[in-house]
Design brief:
Blueprint (H helix, E strand, L loop, with lengths): L17 E7 L1 H6 L1 E12 L15 E2 L8 E8 L2 E8 L8 E2 L12 E12 L8 E4 L15 E7 L6 E3 L2 E9 H6 L1 E6 L14 E6 L8 E4 L15 E8 L6 H13 L16 H10 L1
Parallel strand pairs: 1-9, 11-15
Antiparallel strand pairs: 2-7, 3-6, 4-5, 8-9, 10-11, 12-13, 14-15
Length: about 290
Amino acid sequence: AQGTSRGPRSRVRRGQDALVRITLTLADAAFGTTTPLKIDTAVVCPQCSGSGAREGSEPVTCSTCNGQGDITQVQQSFLGAIRTTQPCPACRGYGSVIPHPCGECSGEGRVRASRTINVKIPAGVAGGNRIHLESQGEVGPGGGPAGDLYVELAVAEHEVFKRHGDDLEMVVKVPMTAAALGTTVAIATLEAERDDTDPADVSAPVDVPPGTQSGTRVVVPGKGVPRLRGRGRGDLGITVLVQTPTRLDDVQRDLLRQLAEARDENAPEAQVHKAGSKGVLGWLKEAFS
């Protein structure tokens, strides 16, 4: 059974939203960038301008559903009449059919095409963040309004820096002599990877105090990641790893022996550190301090 005709429905419908994923470098995620994004999507058919009909033709009312877009079937059961409604298979729910469809889009009013858009990435984004671009998704059937585009971000691993929230962490190796005597080292910051880097921002001087032990963490304020939609930046944490020389010539070996004698360390006794209840990580932290 079919209902009374209401006239054909519009063939214009909103397009679907789309989701694409892009991977950023740590520097681009930290400082922001504008990146071109190539997407394969549905666009308005250039041949029929979205109507779906060949030139000189137009949609006509579907004779199967009389323009309703759906059909209703009635089945009798011991419970009474059961009515089920489903989209019309002849017109796919539009209420109209195109007797002479466009040869370019086969009546869809849209075709697949690749296009490139520029996506502005704000400073401070992290993996999993999404950027919402209104009306940049697929064009709808009949050349209908485009859906929205969501760009999901991923951040590639960096060979030097590890990110923890808005803070950056890195490990710096210094010679045993430098750790014992103290020194100042110039650390290349993440700014060195920016295209428009100010030379003054490329490195930061870091003081390594005399007697520094492996595991000592030095903090450089304000050299981490800019806070997303906020003020200021996180910090740069630098963990010092003291390197013990493995290859010594005769002169160096003799000098170390003299140092050992001066410090009465010719026959040192191993000091066993008790882990207690702090666990392995707490034990290592205390042992290095």
